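Researcher: Go.
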Amino acid sequence: MNDLILYPILFMGALSFVMMLMMYATRIPAAKVLETQGVDLQKLSHPSQLGGVFPSHVERVADNYNHLWEQPTLFYAIIGVIWGLGHTDTVHLYCAWAYCGCRLIHSIVQISINHVWLRFSLFILSWIALATMLLREVLAALTT
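Model: Structure:
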């Protein structure tokens, strides 16, 4: 059963990979349009200079890809701890998959309708799942 906790990591990796493909599938054509409009993309080589340059639908995909490298890093770490200590149980599995589901829906919302309150709600729900796993492991560490 312990190895089952690793599958959500594969899911999140696949989600990140798909978002990376989508980012370049939207960004490269948009960059070519900007070049035809006379924009020197080399002058935009630093990420802070890109804000507002690309159309919103292109920036949202890139933003989502970047978000998949922020909070999920703690997810990967806590999953590694759960697996390494052999603490996989039903609660951890449900939380891990709930986290993945929230992040998937968050990605879909962000790259499509981008409704702020819906995205925020999904973000908080993913944090609840993540915090549950984290706090259970902290409590387990304090009681051993």
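Model: DSSP finds five helices and no strands in the chain.
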